[in-house]
Task: inverse folding
């Protein structure tokens, strides 16, 4: 099923990044995010080094630990589509982190509009 909006992704009852970290460790999440970054780079025909992927994945864990898997998938889809800026034919950590911050901000706006009980359920 395709997720089209941040609200749809937020309301999906799927595992969160922080839960994966708790179960399998931060290294697993970092490796998984590195794979996403390689896919992103390949789709945009960008070159990426292992060290760039490692560093960016660590920053993404800090920025997006509260997201669920549907949200993370949507975030990367939006990155590929250019919703958070252009890469100008070069892998750009800044574009990705700024995109993560924008995604979190839009997520917060969605959460604020939900009933308090639903907010609690989604952020725990």
Result:
């Amino acid at each position: 099923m395709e997720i089209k909006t941040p609200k749809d992704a937020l309301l999906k009852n799927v595992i969160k990044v922080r839960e994966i970290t708790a179960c399998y460790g931060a290294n697993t999440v970092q490796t998984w995010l590195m794979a996403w970054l390689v896919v992103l780079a390949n789709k945009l025909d960008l070159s990426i080094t292992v060290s760039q992927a490692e560093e960016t994945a660590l920053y993404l864990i800090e920025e997006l630990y509260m997201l669920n898997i549907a949200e993370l998938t949507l975030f990367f889809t939006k990155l590929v589509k250019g919703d958070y800026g252009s890469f100008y034919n070069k892998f750009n950590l800044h574009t990705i982190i700024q995109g993560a911050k924008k995604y979190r901000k839009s997520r917060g706006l969605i959460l604020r509009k939900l009933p308090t009980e639903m907010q609690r359920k989604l952020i725990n």
About this structure: The chain has seven helices and no strands.
